[in-house]
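Entry:
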Amino acid sequence: MKEFTATNPDYDKHVQMAVLSMPAAKLLGFKFNDLNPGHCEIEQVTRKELTQHNGYFQGGIIGALADFAGGSAAGTLLPPGWINMTTDFTVKLIAPADGETLLARGRVIDASTHTTVAAADLYAVKQGRETLCATALVTLRNLALKG
């Protein structure tokens, strides 16, 4: 696995502030379990409004968490004063997301000044057992904030 170095010493605070201030993130109510250069883990507790009629996480929710995990992992590598925005993502649903929680583990595959490619694997956790339920590829555009 490729190792990355953060250029922003406060990357963790920056990413959490940028992500958790988004209305969609507030609506989902997930939390960061881990945030390191090029990596992150997001945990989403199962709530009825996030599931299908059978109690499994709904596919759109899985896609949103994959996007947030890939984007957050990418955000750890941005210099101060920069943000990223998703330009494309693809999610492949592998198994029903049946669990008490859903873990989204994001990781950067490649990063350049203006584009970052990340991946995310999502696991349904039921009675302590993780089942891979989705995998995603996320491409992001990195932008300097206008001063």
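The first strand starts at residue 31 and ends at 36.
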